[in-house]
């Protein structure tokens, strides 16, 4: 693993500790870039993977973070209604600019500025879920309640 990847995972670990969460970032040999890859590497259901997806409002170009269950697709029309304006998927440069992470490793925490966040209500059915930790090879386990606390996100039906 490259030094940059290790540094990003360490940054997420430090951010989680600063926020008061006693969770451990785990770096894996296998890629966790996609929800399916992450579930296979961890040994959990795809639905227990937290996908951190960045969208952009079409009119105001504001970043929107959606933390979705790995088995769900975000309904962009429904998300736009929640946000109050149409949205679109953000490109990789926009994602890195507003989160500090590359696509495939976006953590739900540690962004340069607070992001408007929506949490997929389907994640709430699980005792334990897994989120990306800054790189396509790093993850951390948490509870849906912890996810709500650390992101200050609004729970919604997003699929």
UniProtKB/TrEMBL annotation:
<dbReference type="InterPro" id="IPR036754">
    <property type="entry name" value="YbaK/aa-tRNA-synt-asso_dom_sf"/>
</dbReference>
<protein>
    <submittedName>
        <fullName>Prolyl-tRNA editing protein</fullName>
    </submittedName>
</protein>
<dbReference type="InterPro" id="IPR007214">
    <property type="entry name" value="YbaK/aa-tRNA-synth-assoc-dom"/>
</dbReference>
<dbReference type="Pfam" id="PF04073">
    <property type="entry name" value="tRNA_edit"/>
</dbReference>
<feature type="domain" description="YbaK/aminoacyl-tRNA synthetase-associated">
    <location>
        <begin position="30"/>
        <end position="148"/>
    </location>
</feature>
